[in-house]
Write a structure and sequence with these properties.
seven-stranded mixed β-sheet; single chain; 2 domains; 16 strands; flat; alpha/beta; Rossmann fold; three-stranded antiparallel β-sheet
């Protein structure tokens, strides 16, 4: 018989998220539309019914992950084999891709209590790989200190008049940027359909798309350019594309197994940082605002010629400078290069103006079209535009809203016309420094 003893059993439910940038002064909200239902297991009761969840910070994301494992442990097919005593270790293994069990595969249901009545939602389809990609997309964006909406694609809860994830994101939620959260074509199409829906409502947002590093070999990326890439048929300043993936630390900041994730959440994060520290009409690229967080290395390091070829096609590279860090090193939209709208800062300036001037215009609806109403409209627009001039977004503007474009015929037709002419300030993309070697007898200050 064994001697008397005391045994300690560790109930490991700890999940430690990475550090994030300051969230106290966040000015922008991001969004991601989940493919199918891969991320709905992270939602709370009311969010499941609404088809969308708001994740305010990275600590909340990891609290959701821990609760999800606990809720599904001990019986649900979706989480078979996970016990309460393995929350932390199991989370690490399935998030870094080393878990070999049956969890995160198959079908599960979710019970939701609404006004004292329980509704069973589902069945939802779970997939370990897809969930892992979307989880890391959320994680990587939240590191930049901005909150995130996540819509559950394809989910409709008619029993309590719930919205689908797409409807919740596209129709009922206000945010500034949406990014591709998963590497599949479906992830890309989710971004496109949300951006197009928001444009139709006069509430435009900016979309960030992904170009996989595996799509191009060195024989395809040449000095003559690239033949095709996702979004190549676009000519639209509401979109930007970023090339490649980063390799970074896994759960609990472990170096045992590194994780490879797409860079779209990080570019959206750089945009959030720019709004927080500067304004939407500043470029999110470069060493001041374009630093990519939590990078061990890039999945593919681009040569100078490859970066040039990508940039000529409107694809933004991410570049590592030894001793300095990894940075977003391009600010192109998918608008043609002949327009100033080909730059992210100018594109987002116009998106901001559509929203702010649109609010002024909606406040003018149903007023009488006379000199007083027009003067009020001009004054309100002038206040917005002069502020942007002071914040280095515009160099000059002019507002025309008077009898010249509102004659009697327009007034009698219940119409109202205003013309706003603006000159955006563009970002520096190319610097030339000339070094001249002179002899010792030359007076260079004279």
């Amino acid at each position: 018989m064994a001697r008397p003893n005391v045994t300690f059993k560790l109930n490991d439910q700890s999940l430690v998220g990475p550090q994030s940038e300051s969230i106290s002064d966040a000015k922008m909200i991001g969004a991601m539309l989940s493919v199918d239902q891969h991320s709905i297991a992270l939602s709370r009761e009311g969010e499941t019914a609404e088809g969308v969840m708001l994740v305010p910070n990275i600590n909340d994301l990891y609290a959701r992950l821990s609760a999800m494992i606990t809720n599904f442990a001990g019986g649900a097919t979706y989480m078979a084999g996970i016990t309460l005593y393995s929350v932390g270790s199991c989370a690490s293994s399935y998030l870094d891709g080393t878990y070999t069990g049956t969890a995160f595969e198959g079908v599960f249901t979710k019970d939701v209590n609404v006004n004292g009545k329980t509704y069973t939602y589902g069945p939802y389809t779970g997939g370990r790989t897809a969930f892992r990609q979307e989880f890391w997309a959320m994680n990587n964006f939240l590191q930049y200190g901005a909150p995130l909406y996540v819509g559950f694609g394809g989910v409709t809860n008619a029993a309590i008049h719930g919205a689908s994830g797409f409807e919740a994101i596209a129709d009922f939620t206000l945010f500034d940027v949406i990014f591709q959260g998963i590497s599949s074509d479906a992830g890309q199409q989710n971004v496109i359909k949300v951006v197009e829906a928001k444009k139709a409502q006069d509430l435009p947002v900016f979309g960030v798309l992904y170009v996989p590093s595996t799509q191009f070999g060195t024989e395809v990326i040449t000095s003559s350019g690239i033949t095709t890439f996702p979004g190549s048929t676009f000519d639209d300043f509401h979109y930007a594309t970023v090339f490649g993936e980063k390799v970074h630390l896994g759960p609990n900041n472990s170096t045992d197994t590194l994780v490879t994730t797409i860079l779209t959440p990080d570019v959206a994060g750089c945009i959030a940082r720019t709004d927080k520290l500067y304004f939407p009409w500043y470029s999110p690229a470069g060493l001041k605002r374009g630093r990519i967080l939590n990078v061990t290395k890039l999945a593919r390091n681009l040569k100078a010629g490859e970066q040039d070829a990508l940039y000529d096609k409107g694809i933004n590279p991410v570049v590592t400078f030894p001793g300095e860090g990894t940075f977003l090193f391009g600010d192109r939209t998918l608008k043609g290069t002949t327009s100033t709208l080909s730059r992210i800062n100018v594109g987002r300036l116009f998106i901001n103006l559509k929203k702010t001037l649109g609010t002024v215009a909606r406040n003018t609806l149903f007023e009488v079209n006379n000199a007083g109403t027009r003067a009020t409209f001009v004054a309100q627009c002038d206040k917005i535009l002069s502020r942007i001039v002071s914040q280095n977004g515009l160099s000059e503007y002019k507002i025309v809203c008077d009898e010249s474009n509102n004659p009697i015929s327009v007034v009698e037709a219940n119409q109202f016309f205003a013309e706003v002419l603006i000159k955006p300030l563009t970002s520096i993309n190319y610097i030339t420094i000339t070094l001249t070697n002179v002899d010792l007898e030359t007076n260079i200050n004279g």
